[in-house]
Specification:
Elements (H helix, E strand, L loop, with lengths): L1 H18 L8 H19 L3 H9 L8 H19 L8 H25 L11 H21 L1
Helix pairs in contact: 1-2, 2-4, 2-6, 3-4, 4-5, 5-6
Length: 151
Amino acid sequence: MAPLIVLLVFTTLARAVGALGVGYVASWPAATAVGLAAMFIVTGASHFFPARRAGLIAIVPPALKHPAALVALTGVLELLGAVALLVPPEAGQLRVAAALSLAVLLFVMFPANVYASQARRSEHSPNTPLPQRTAMQCVFIAATLFVALAS
């Protein structure tokens, strides 16, 4: 639930700043990119905090090898994507590529959420019920596609 709150709060704040005349966030796609960047900084950084990291490793489906490396890789990708989302569209297509890549990453990581919902894997594992997690994941993917298609 925290990532959704971060997305909504930072998007709203960015858009409010844009309404005050700051051109960088003068549109909803730009403000949403800022909200997504904040969200992915929070979630990406959590891949490296020991307690949270252990919980994330615990929800990697057993069919996938090297769960610790996968958690580190996805954390790095989320952080890189967050930074790329902050690049203004005038500087090229980096924001669009980042948003599309993050949408794919969210889709690819979803099986871990399904696996996590089946049983509590660790005291630090995400424990959001699958219907709620699915709805949030759809919001996150929709937001990334909104930024990609409207930027």
